[in-house]
Amino acid sequence: MFEFLSVFVQYADQWGPRLAEAAVVSARISLLGFALAAVVGLVLALMQDTSSALLRGVAKGYVIFFRGVPVLAILFLIYFGLPGIGVVFDAEPAAIVGLGLAFAAQMAEVYRAGLSAIPKGQWEAARSVGFLPGQVLFLIILPQVARIVAAPVIVTFVALLKDSSLASLITVNELVLEGRALATEYFLPLHIYIWVGVMYFIIAFPLSMLAKLLSRRARLGTR
């Protein structure tokens, strides 16, 4: 056991900086991809809440399609498929766009659940005192939705963070790809992938606990 653990100490100065740099790439594509998902998801949720049958149909079709297609297939389509029609993305932007579009479908459902929890009377009351539709949405409705959906939003981000490892398959030099390179270089895959797994855990576990805490507070607040 001591020999097994001593390997981590022996190679810490060689593996640590490289994996830390790769972790920054993983964090960057996760955060930017999630930002895209949050914006697109909100638009989709609002489209599903309109009186236009066309907009509702487009939004529902988007959600059904992207929730039914594997994230990896979306990444391959963007990075390897789109160049066939002249649309070329570098690996990292392709990962951001792919993750963002895929998880926008999940975010749309999260937002829709939050919007449905707001009584319609609040819209009508705000309009009756002179608020414009945009003011009602951004000043009254969305702040309440943000509190309601905080926990599922964090859970969705954690899921996106873990799926960001798929970006290694389109050559993004994130945490998993760098781990694979180190495993090939040092012939110590067990140690290296344990290190990679621990780094993901360090990021994801506190966020998961925060989501549980927010969910518990939200339940208590509704009693």
In short:
By secondary structure, the chain is mainly α. It is built from 8 helices and no strands. It has a single domain (15-222), classed as MetI-like (MetI-like fold).
Helix content: over 70%
CATH architectural designation: Orthogonal Bundle
Rg (C-alpha, Å): 21 Å
Overall pLDDT level: 90
User: Can you identify the CATH class?
Assistant: Mainly Alpha
End-to-end Cα distance: 51 Å
Largest sheet: none
Which residues sit in consecutive blocks of at least 5 with pLDDT less than 50? none
Number of domains: 1
Tell me the β content.
under 5%
Please, what is the CATH homologous superfamily? MetI-like
Please, how many helices? 8
**Pairing-aware structural class of the strands and helices?**
mainly alpha
Order of helices and strands: HHHHHHHH
Q: Give the overall shape.
A: globular
Counted beta strands:
0
What does this structure look like?
There is one protein chain. The chain has eight helices and no strands. The chain is mostly helical. It has one domain: MetI-like (MetI-like fold). The longest helix has 47 residues, at 2-48. It is globular, with a radius of gyration of 21 Å. It starts with a helix and ends with a helix.
